[in-house]
Specification:
- This protein has 442 residues and is an alpha+beta fold.
- The chain contains 18 helices and 13 strands.
Length: 442
């Protein structure tokens, strides 16, 4: 507590005032009896250092109560930090583990001949033009139709009464590069090659589930399957299909053979695998490479932007938990307001004494306001630390890479201080409105 000197006021001598018989002002009293030595009047005042010292002393005077009061803000700030940190980490993790298959897969749909006008839009050799595009790792063409979506397939041509004679399966035609395009591999035998296509060979490759249904586990003895009464030699079994998983239960024929026997001569889909990050560019260029001048007729399916996926996940998580954090902050603010108000009531005598010694209303309000702000600030610091520890711990347990924003670490204490400031407004105003006489009397 410090003091500041005010200008002295002149006082009239008592005797002169009595002889005159009436109250005189300062100038009249001085003229009648002469000036009296002026006495300096000291007025207490507090600078910023004194204000913080008094506020800190008030907080530390009741450490247990202050700790419990701070707990509300700690919970609120901790919840907010965990919410933002976990949502950012989860969003980044989803992008980091964004399904590589989906993120690098582009599919080009080709309309039928009837809708395209005359002739096929995409030729089987069109995949070569796509393969030369930058960022393309593998590409294959497929021909399928509704008529061949359910064809009866037999493992032998003997029909036994009372027994299941065959399985209904899809029949498709594909280019020789299909295994790489569907990210699969041959579990037995080999896949179709250019020689099979050029010779119109009646050979077939079975999906692994189709082979299991037909009871074919090996191709060493050149087993055959029968489609519409014609035998096709099984030269391989395709397994581990990640794209176009329906091919696991399909019979795959050479394009020329499928056109001759099954009417599958037109490409209906082109499967493209790209390098990570090149899907968007390839999706724009592939239709032009496949059908120059008619690229608008093709339908391209490209993966979503990983950045948008991350933002979407963060938005969903934030929306789910942000309300909880805000509610916790409100509860913390109410706790600070209540405790500060109780503190004001308990310290009425102290407030009255300060006012009697010359403390202004602003100084009294400032002291209690700084106390509540200090409690909120401490809660923000502790809450930010705990929240970050939780985010790092969860990330370590889940083997994630934690994402922590520096602005979050700096903003959390500020948010806690703001909560304390707002919570202490009413109690501080109430303390400042107390009259010295009433406060001392209470």
């Amino acid at each position: 507590m410090r003091s500041r000197t005010r200008a002295p006021r002149a006082a009239a001598p008592a005797g002169t005032a009595q002889d005159a018989g009436t109250a005189q002002d300062a100038g009249t009293a001085q003229d009648a009896g002469g000036p009296r030595a002026a006495e300096a009047v000291e007025r207490p005042w507090m600078d910023v250092r004194d204000l913080w010292s008094e506020a800190l002393a008030g907080v530390l005077a009741r450490p247990m109560r202050s700790a419990l009061t701070t707990l509300g803000t700690v919970l609120g700030i901790t919840t907010l930090v965990i919410t933002i940190g976990i949502s950012s980490t989860a969003g980044n993790q989803i992008v980091g583990r964004f399904d590589a298959l989906t993120a690098t897969s582009v599919t080009v749909g080709v309309p039928s001949v009837a809708s395209a006008g005359s002739g096929p839009l995409v030729d089987w050799s069109g995949v070569d033009a796509v393969r030369r595009l930058a960022g393309v790792e593998s590409v294959a063409a497929i021909a399928a139709s509704q008529e061949t979506a359910g064809v009866e397939v037999r493992a032998n041509d003997v029909v036994a009464p009372g027994e299941v004679s065959g399985q209904t399966m899809a029949v498709v035609a594909a280019s020789p590069t299909l295994p790489a395009a569907v990210r699969g591999g041959m579990t037995a035998g080999r896949f179709l090659d250019d020689g099979d296509i050029a010779r119109h060979d009646r050979v077939a490759v079975l999906g692994d589930q189709a082979a299991r249904l037909l009871g074919i586990g090996s191709v060493e003895d050149a087993p055959a399957v029968f489609l519409k009464g014609r035998a096709y030699t099984v030269i391989g079994i395709l397994g581990g299909v990640e794209r176009e998983q329906q091919l696991a239960t399909a019979v795959i024929l050479p394009p020329t053979t499928a056109a001759d026997r099954m009417g599958l001569g037109t490409v209906t889909r082109v499967l493209i695998n790209t390098a990570l990050g090149a899907a968007g560019q390839v999706a724009r260029q592939a239709p032009i490479a496949l059908a120059p001048g008619a690229e608008a007729s093709l339908t391209v399916t490209a993966p979503a932007d990983p950045v948008r996926a991350r933002e979407g996940v963060q938005g969903d998580v934030d929306g789910l938990f942000l309300v909880l954090g805000l509610v916790s902050l409100v509860v913390g603010a109410i706790g600070i307001a209540n405790v500060t108000l109780v503190t004001v009531i308990e310290r009425i005598g102290e407030i009255g004494l300060r006012r009697a010694l010359g403390a202004s209303r602003r100084q009294v309000a400032g002291q209690f306001l700084v106390e509540s702000t200090t409690i909120g600030l401490l809660g923000g610091v502790v809450g930010a630390a705990l929240g970050m520890i939780v985010v790092v711990t969860v990330s370590a347990v889940k083997e994630w890479t934690p994402v922590l924003d520096v602005r979050l670490a700096l903003g959390a204490p500020v948010a806690g201080a703001l909560v304390g400031l707002l919570a202490g407004l009413y109690p501080s105003l109430r303390a400042s409105r107390m009259e010295p006489v009433d406060a001392l009397r209470s």
